[in-house]
Design a protein that fits this description.
0% of the residues lie in helices and 36% in strands. With 132 residues, it is mainly beta. The strands form three sheets. Strands 3-4-5-6 form a four-stranded antiparallel β-sheet, with no helix packed on it. The protein has a three-stranded antiparallel β-sheet with strand order 7-8-9, with no helix packed on it. A two-stranded antiparallel sheet has the order 1-2. Strand 4 (38-42) and strand 5 (47-51) form a beta hairpin. Residues 1-97 form the PAN2-PAN3 deadenylation complex catalytic subunit PAN2 N-terminal domain.
Length: 132
């Protein structure tokens, strides 16, 4: 069983803070970098709670992902901080975003492809019994 009290440590002061009581069974924890210290707490059943690590967890901040499979298996925040992705046990990815066309990689570049293979331009090699 998951413990619903999260231990929080202040690395600036090098001491433990009062544990944070959450309302979901925590399986995945990620900081949401667009906010100063907002924390996303995700359970495997699909419940999401967003809260501040130093504040009280509010049950009104609980959202639900509707997974196709019975469990959520992974969760992450995009590098551009514009999208949240949830992966379930059926292989589906659920995408949450606040814009119609989110950017996933703010530093993307054009793909550089390798040069075509030159094997077709080489002369054929005669394989015969004379080489033995």
């Amino acid at each position: 069983a998951c413990d619903r009290f999260l231990k929080v440590y202040d690395l600036r002061m090098m001491r433990a803070i009062t544990p944070l009581q959450v309302h979901v069974d925590p399986a995945f924890l990620r900081f949401i970098p667009t906010y100063t210290s907002r924390l996303a707490i995700i359970s495997q059943s699909g419940q999401c709670q967003f809260c501040e690590p130093t504040g009280l967890a509010n049950p009104a901040d609980i959202f639900h992902v509707n997974p196709v499979g019975p469990l959520l298996m992974t969760f992450d925040v995009s590098a551009s901080k514009q999208a949240l992705a949830f992966g379930d046990s059926e292989g589906c990815v659920h995408l949450w975003t606040d814009s119609p066309e989110p950017s996933f990689n703010p530093y993307s570049r054009e793909t550089e492809f390798a040069l075509p293979c030159l094997v077709d331009s080489l002369p054929p090699l005669d394989w015969s019994q004379d080489l033995l």
